[in-house]
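Sharing a chain and its predicted structure for anyone who wants a worked example. Both blocks are below, sequence first, tokens second.
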Amino acid sequence: MIPTYSTTIRRKEMDAVLTCMVDEKIGPGELNTRLIQQAKEFIGCDGAVALRSPAIALRYALKALGVLGSEEPVKVMISALAPAWQYKSLIDLGIEPLVLDVDDVTGLVTAEIVYEGMKNGGRVLLLHETEGILPDFEEIKNTGVQIIEDISQSAGASVAVVDENGNETGRTKAGLFGVFSILGLEERDVLTAGGGAILVAPARREWLVLKHHTDEAPVTDLLPDINCALAWVQIKEFARNEKTRKEIFGMYQHACMVGKHKMFVRNLEEGSTACNFSLILNGSFKDVKQYTAKKDVEIHQAFENSVIAAFDELSDNCIHAKSLLLRTVHFPLYPRLTHAETAKIVKVLGTLP
């Protein structure tokens, strides 16, 4: 059976972690500093801090925004397809989450949806870039809402910078559009440390505010060197791994063109990452799962760990997200797939019931 998910850990990652263990320096130290520098170069941000979990990163981002401890309660808007930890973390912090539905074509929160959320009291947007797809940032920024980007699936993607004559003058990477950004390093994120997160401040002004809080962070909030060793190599190897993922994604995409099932609309060149291959089924998940299992290909519901999956009471207000939860599946997509395995999956995708 070809598993749906498999973290790409090669010899370089193993050697980095082993060296850390041999040196007996596994707590937060030199490698934490090196990882931060690597992340700053990768994203192009002014400052960053490596922490033990995305939830801890969110707490520091909200502190720096002045949301935590605010005399006036602030509602934080999140996508219904965002990971469930976002909702649970906000509740734990005493902040009211305002869950937003998504666009059924991209799986993303749009500016129109954000405006509706703001009418209901939303003032901060935790922007999950679902399936590695980047939204229309300019339209969302024009709402005036404060944005915390979640680039756990979209790190490495970018959007074009266009001048007044319509000419492309450069590209801006994911992680540089919000006031702060969270790059999760969990097992199924596009980059992994086996756990943890990097909290990013795109500009110097925001970094100075964030640094004031993170300089006082206890050692138990900081990412240990043993995890940093893995993440450091993962970032260095990102371009290589992403190239392979996109080549496989292209083959899958071609195989699905003749079928009845759909894919999310995305710009696969640079406007999104190939962190997963998701297919929106035009039929029964059970039937497709049984078919792929007979062909020795494992699939999973793409949003099984999402907010909408964990809190079914939100379904009435998040119709598109609920539909995508029930119909969207992940097929295996990772650099360690062999040519034979890729060919098998392509054949299965072309013959789905």
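Comments welcome. The chain has a mean pLDDT of 94.
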